[in-house]
Hints:
The protein is an alpha/beta fold. It has 11 helices and 9 strands.
Amino acid sequence: MLIFKKVDDLQAWLKAETRDKGKGGSEGRKIGFAPTMGALHEGHLELVRMAKRDGCLTVASIFVNPTQFNDPKDLEKYPRLPEKDTALLISADCDALFMPSVEEVYPPGIDLTIQLDFRQLEKVMEGVFRPGHFKGMATVVHRLIDIVKPQRLYMGQKDFQQLSIVRDMINQLHLPVELVMCPTVRESDGLAMSSRNLRLSTEMRSAAPVIHQTLQWAKLEFPSRPATEIQTEAMRRLQAAGLNPEYFDIVDGVTLLPVEHWNDSDFIVACTAAFAGEVRLIDNLVLKS
Ligand code: AMP
């Protein structure tokens, strides 16, 4: 696996790899790209493996994007494990790792902020509790797409609202890239894998699987009960387990607007965010598709 820190070096390599004619090389090969913030786990590696299975020249990036953190403490405490991450990506047979500096992604003096209106997609759920987060996320994903120019972009279902916003950005800007969704990879007790899990105390680590259990409970109950009832009970269950939930919403999987009854939509997702001690965890489950 090659490691690049500079945009120019990565682009020169990608250009050579994708035009390499007659050498049994990667002519015509699509670029598959998996952007991450590092502290990698099986969820991230699955994105890389999917891209490899799809036959892509596979690029992963590690960049802890300062513009998507609304809490400076969260940014400071975000785990950074470059050596371990590199070894994991090699084990997943990733072709290239892009690990740029902040200046490389955001050249001084140039404002690359995305000015799109994501309408209700950025206003609900995470949008309520993390103002500015999605603008920062969309900006960095746009910038990274512009650098890597992938034909396929691999992102996880675990960040369902993020995926909806990236899909909307791709549509609004007519970006020539296909968004590929990777199902959420979980620990054996159901906890969604997350870089933030590393920061859980022993006590909170044993409490955290209640998030997935509550989502599964909601999936069983929702066909016969209104969403508002399920939400109230779900919040109570999370609190009873010692977590501090911010929201538990049942929404339309396309518009992200609230759904009250099972028959109101064909694609329904339950999404939740809860603090486990100081660590904020998010998860979701498709209730109907
Ligand atoms: P992050 O490093 O947390 O920004 O995540 C980078 C990418 O990995 C995003 O597309 C996430 O949705 C995806 N991802 C994170 N955790 C998981 C997981 N447990 N399963 C699948 N994909 C994940």
